[in-house]
């Protein structure tokens, strides 16, 4: 789960990670009022107006503007940014509409650094990465100059040690700003680690992390992603969720407990298990790519889906205008074939089956599942194997075109 | 012969009174698995299916029944705790089926596993979480009489000499179904799960298969993300004489949808299907061109 920069900074403040003063704003009037308040509080006329979307690269896309001329200029910038379709390297070409702003005090900095934390799945620990190349795309730094990224891994029973924080501080060259800066960084690291663990993060990035003229170390940006598996112990995440930032179909799927990803093709897929779902996409493309037949979606109904969930999943596929045929590929383990069959039949009877349907069932309760499909009276083509199913679905789309 | 589990494995089901635990415990019993105990805090003293005693703790169950292997169906909030309880009680193989355990919990579990003395015969191994489990098919009708620990459909298996190891549950069934359809049986099939932090890795299972005299060939099924397949490839190259057929799911998956980009930085650009396939081919494994060709690809290597 992703959250906005201003929400991430609320968490930073809670854990003692220093941030500039700032306020969220949802309208242009509010932006002006917050800018006025900020200028009064800081005694400086410089404020930054920042677009809040769930994607990085906002500055380059024109979503971050410095206003040096007071609240009126901040208002003018807010007018330009709020409501714009912001395109960055992470949004795709269609961009993302800006619905929220963050008004932040402007600061004089001496350098821009990068600090990130992630679960390293190879070493099975939280890894902290730091680089002197702040403000750049870190993917590019990793690719072009990997030696400029320094990493430490944290033992979960010990926690982040002081020497590890110092190791990163020296790698970032902070000693040239004086001892207090090193101490300030170490304190920030301790808070950053605590935040990552207690808030069940999967990724946290501060890009850039800056050193001010006063020698203080401050997080100028905040990217915080949560581990979806931990949602059960974080009821407060509901307040962070911004549904306007999510793909509507994927959101609808998530609400009924399904894992759905929209793709560009024409074959709707309903599969159980992420691996089999990916493999089903692979084989459709393998057999059908030359004929222009490719998957329209990734849909994993999971292991323990109910009949109702299957019905909803099948309806989502049926409703998609780009779908020219549907491939149901189930190898039941926990998932029982009869549950899938009943769910599919219920959805098809309710909405009508306007496109060819190929079903391959195998595994738990397979006989019962096949019987339900046969007795439904629906026009369903049965497949014996995945390859057989892929060939039949490709032929079906070919015939329909 | 087989690896890790067989006829004499004594199983405890943690979470046996829940709906998933109860359903699959029954299926395991029907298959012939020696389910000797169940554990659910607060339900100690009950009997499951008229024959399996339920205990309040795993320790009590170990003392009373001598169970050595656990199968966990405990829901995510308590699942990591259940794994730790099993390890502490002296269970040597913990199979965790539960899907959706927070990664922060698994990092702690992993640390406990790694803190054990690697030479100790009593050290615990973990399979999963978020996996179908492990099965050594029996020689009876519908492969019954073996040891099935988990949620896989038992009847698709067939006793024999091929080992299967996979990150994906349903793709494991797919491979097994293909093998059995060709009349090729399996020694042991293991789903290691696809979670970012888990127990046994491809390398661990490949080593067990290589050292098992009754396993003659292996199907390995990976998917995009992480570096476990590349580590497996390095092991195959350095240590394995037995043939390995492999399939990597996700060749056509859109980039960045499932993997956080910062994770890819740490892995040094690893994680794509193309890179994994390249590493496995260079190690001498043969790649199945489609997921429907896993068994036939291995068969072509077995002569």
Identify the notable features of this structure and list them briefly.
heterodimer, A: 401 residues, alpha+beta, D-amino Acid Aminotransferase, Chain A, domain 1, Dna Ligase, domain 1, Rossmann fold, six-stranded antiparallel sheet, four-stranded antiparallel sheet, 13 helices, elongated, B: 303 residues, alpha/beta, 2 domains, seven-stranded mixed sheet, 10 helices, 14 strands, 21% strand
Question: How would you portray this structure in words?
Answer:
The complex is a heterodimer of chains A (401) and B (303). By secondary structure, chain A is of the alpha+beta class. Chain A folds into 3 domains: 1-19 and 108-245, D-amino Acid Aminotransferase, Chain A, domain 1; 21-106, ATP-grasp fold, A domain (Dna Ligase, domain 1), CATH 3.30.1490; 247-400, Rossmann fold (3-Layer(aba) Sandwich). In chain A, 38% of the residues lie in helices and 25% in strands. Chain A has 13 helices and 18 strands. Chain A has helices at 5-14, 28-42, 71-81, 138-144, 162-171, 179-198, 237-240, 248-255, 274-288, 307-319, 337-351, 366-375, 386-400, and strands spanning 22-25, 47-52, 64-67, 85-86, 96-97, 100-105, 109-120, 125-131, 149-154, 201-212, 217-219, 223-226, 259-262, 267-271, 297-300, 325-332, 357-363, 380-382. The model of chain A has no long low-confidence stretch (mean pLDDT 91). In chain B, the strands form 2 sheets. A 7-stranded mixed beta sheet of chain B has the order 3-4-2-1-5-6-7, with helices on both faces. The longest helix of chain B is centred in the N-terminal third of the chain and has 13 residues, at 19-31. The model of chain B is unreliable at 258-268 (pLDDT under 50). Chain B is of the alpha/beta class and 303 residues long. In chain B, helix 7 runs parallel beside helix 9. Chain B folds into 2 domains: 10-127, 3-Layer(aba) Sandwich (Rossmann fold); 133-302, Rossmann fold, CATH 3.40.50. Chain B has 10 helices and 14 strands. At the A-B interface, strand 7, strand 8, helix 4, strand 10 and helix 9 of A face helix 4, helix 5 and helix 8 of B.
């Amino acid at each position: 789960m992703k959250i906005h920069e201003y929400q991430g900074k609320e968490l930073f403040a809670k854990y003692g990670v220093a941030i500039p003063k700032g306020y969220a704003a949802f309208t242009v009037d509010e932006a002006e009022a917050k800018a006025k308040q900020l200028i009064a509080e800081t005694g400086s006329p410089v404020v930054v107006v920042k677009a809040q979307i769930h994607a990085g690269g906002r500055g380059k896309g024109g979503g971050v503007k410095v206003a040096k001329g007071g609240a009126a200029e901040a208002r003018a910038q807010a007018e330009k940014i709020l409501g714009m379709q912001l395109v960055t390297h992470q949004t795709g070409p269609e961009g993302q509409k800006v619905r929220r702003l963050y008004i932040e005090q402007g600061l004089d900095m001496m350098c821009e650094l990068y600090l990130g934390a992630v679960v390293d799945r190879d070493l099975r620990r939280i890894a902290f990465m730091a680089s002197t190349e702040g403000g750049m795309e870190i993917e590019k730094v990793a690719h072009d100059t990997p030696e400029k990224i320094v990493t430490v891994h944290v033992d979960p029973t010990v926690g982040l040690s002081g020497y590890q924080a110092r190791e990163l501080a020296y790698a970032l060259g902070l000693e040239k700003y004086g001892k207090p800066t090193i101490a300030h960084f170490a304190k920030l690291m301790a808070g950053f680690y605590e935040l990552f663990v207690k808030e069940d993060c999967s990724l946290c990035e501060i890009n850039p992390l800056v050193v001010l003229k006063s020698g203080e170390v401050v997080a100028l940006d905040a990217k915080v992603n949560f581990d979806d598996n931990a949602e059960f112990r974080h009821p407060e995440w509901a307040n962070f969720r911004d549904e306007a930032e999510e793909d509507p179909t994927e959101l609808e799927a998530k609400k009924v407990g399904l894992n759905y990803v929209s793709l560009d093709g024409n074959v709707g897929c309903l599969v159980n298990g992420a691996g089999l779902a990916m493999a089903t996409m692979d084989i459709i493309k393998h057999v059908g790519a030359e004929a222009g037949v490719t998957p329209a979606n990734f849909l994993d109904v999971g292991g323990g889906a109910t009949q109702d969930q299957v019905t909803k999943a099948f309806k989502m596929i049926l409703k998609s205008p780009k779908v020219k045929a549907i491939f149901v590929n189930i190898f039941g383990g926990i998932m029982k074939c009869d549950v899938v069959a009943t769910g599919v039949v219920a959805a098809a009877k309710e909405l009508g089956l306007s496109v060819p349907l190929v079903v391959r069932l195998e595994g738990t309760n397979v006989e019962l599942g096949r019987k339900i499909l046969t007795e439904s009276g629906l026009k369903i083509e049965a497949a014996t194997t995945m390859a057989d199913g892929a060939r039949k679905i490709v032929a079906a789309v070919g015939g329909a075109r | 012969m087989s690896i890790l589990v067989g006829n004499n494995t004594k199983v405890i089901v943690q979470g046996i009174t829940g709906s998933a635990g109860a359903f699959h415990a029954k299926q395991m019993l029907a298959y012939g698995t020696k389910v000797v105990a169940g554990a659910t805090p607060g339900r100690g003293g009950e009997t499951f299916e008229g024959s399996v005693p339920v205990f309040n703790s795993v320790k009590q169950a170990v003392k009373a029944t001598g169970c050595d292997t656990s199968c966990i169906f405990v829901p995510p909030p308590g699942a990591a705790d259940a794994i730790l309880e099993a390890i502490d009680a002296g269970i040597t193989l913990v199979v965790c089926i539960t899907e959706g355990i927070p990664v922060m919990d698994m990092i702690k579990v992993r640390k406990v596993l790694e803190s054990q003395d690697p030479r100790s015969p009593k050290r615990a191994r973990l399979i999963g979480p978020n996996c179908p489990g492990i099965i050594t098919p029996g020689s009876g009708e519908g492969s019954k009489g073996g040891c099935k620990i988990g949620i896989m459909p038992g009847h698709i298996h067939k006793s024999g000499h091929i080992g299967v190891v996979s990150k994906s549950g349903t793709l494991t069934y797919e491979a097994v179904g293909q093998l059995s359809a060709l009349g090729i049986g399996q020694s042991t099939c293991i789903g290691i799960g696809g979670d970012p932090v888990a127990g046994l890795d491809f390398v661990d299972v490949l080593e067990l298969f290589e050292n098992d005299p009754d396993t003659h060939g292996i199907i390995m099924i990976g998917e995009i993300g992480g570096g476990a397949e590349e580590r497996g490839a390095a092991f195959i190259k350095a240590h394995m004489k037995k043939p390995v057929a492999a399939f990597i799911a996700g060749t056509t998956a859109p980039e960045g949808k499932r993997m956080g980009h910062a994770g890819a930085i740490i892995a040094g650009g690893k994680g794509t299907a193309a890179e994994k396939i390249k590493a496995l081919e260079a190690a001498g494994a043969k790649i199945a061109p489609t997921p429907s060709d896993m068994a036939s690809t291995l068969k072509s290597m077995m002569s």
